[in-house]
Amino acid sequence: MAKKLDTIIVIQQTLNQVLLSILTQYGADNPINLKYLSEGWEEKPYWYFWFNCIKGAYRLELSHAEEKNDGWVAGFRVKYYPDPTEKCFSGLAPLERECRKSHLFNVKSSIGTCECIAHSQSSFCTSDAGLPLGVPNYYGTHLIPPDFFYIGDILVWSGHQFITIGAESYDRWLVTVVDESAKDGSNLYEAVDRDFPGWELTSFFAERLAVIWQIYNCFTLQANPVFTNEGFKFVVNGQATQLVLCQEIHKINEWWLLSADNTKENLSDIYKQINDWSVSNGK
Predict the structure, then answer these.
(1) Considering only 29-43, 134-148, 151-165, 172-186, which range has the smallest mean pLDDT?
(2) Which of 106, 135, 225, 264 shows the smallest number of beta carbons within 10 Å?
(3) Average model confidence (pLDDT) for the chain?
(4) Between 232 and 3, whose confidence is greater?
């Protein structure tokens, strides 16, 4: 347990160092258009990200951590809290929409009490005092179901002279509700409950993580493979949720392999690991 906690702390400190280094160097003109940043801890670390070019807020939460060879592997769950005025907001499930518009999201920024980890960089921290931040308050983080606002996963593998970032999501998170009360067993109706653009939102975020890690380490993008598999829709019949293959939905994995130009690391081994992860996740 202590060893795992050490790995978690290393991952937390590493990501903070990467973020603060980029913000210190570029400030508000940072290359990923990041406006505001905050960090917290609930059993494991998490981060909130706000970007100038998108109205909602991202939550990146560490879900898995382990040592691997001379480095580490970290798995993250990604959530997106859309602003009610965004087009994608209507794709949330009705309960998610009600939750997002409720008092559980009444957090507002304020002058002098900003907890942003980049607050010391006065040229960067541009939070608008008194305006809603669009993220859950303390009670909301504990009351909101864990699958609400979930959009995808990110995997980071940090090794000797290389780092690999992978993103995984469905192009659409489609949840339908069916009524199986007909005597002949046929469905009376099938209604869409949730139709959210998971991949579009996840790849937007993952690509920006790849950019800051590339700049921080002075690495070169060696490969950017994309794997696409047939996806599932989630069918709820009132008693259980079934996964049904759907040709209209795709499960997508994208990878950014970054390394030093003079690295002696056997990149073919890294490619093989990436392929193995993508194949297993695509099943």
Answers:
(1) 172-186
(2) 264
(3) 86
(4) 232
| CB-count burial class (<10 Å; 0-12, 13-18, 19+) for 14 | middle
CA atoms within 13 Å, Cβ hemisphere of 70: 6
Report which listed range, 23-32, 181-190, 264-273, is most confident: 23-32
Rg of the chain on CA atoms, in Å: 20
Looking at the chain, list the stretches that DSSP marks H as alpha helix, in order from N- to C-terminal side: 2-26, 94-100, 138-143, 198-217, 267-282
Assign 214 to helix, strand or coil.
helix
Boundaries of every domain in the chain: 2-172+196-229+251-282
Cα→Cα distances 155→75, 84, 166, 255, 267, Å: 5, 29, 5, 9, 18
Whether the CB-CB separation of 144 and 133 falls below 8 Å is answered with no
Closest CA to 154 of 271, 11, 33, 40: 11
DSSP state of 108: B
Neighbours of 226 (CB within 10 A): 11
Instruction: Please state the pTM of the whole predicted model.
Output: 0.88
Q: Both tokens of residue 134?
A: 């669009």
Q: What angle do CA 10, 154, 28 make, to 5 degrees?
A: 75
* Residues counted in the chain: 283
Q: Looking at 56-183, list the stretches that DSSP marks H as alpha helix, in order from N- to C-terminal side.
A: 94-100, 138-143
Helix, strand, coil share (%) of the chain residues, nearest 5: 30, 40, 30
Question: Which of 1-15, 99-113, 225-239, 265-279 comes out lowest in average pLDDT?
Answer: 265-279
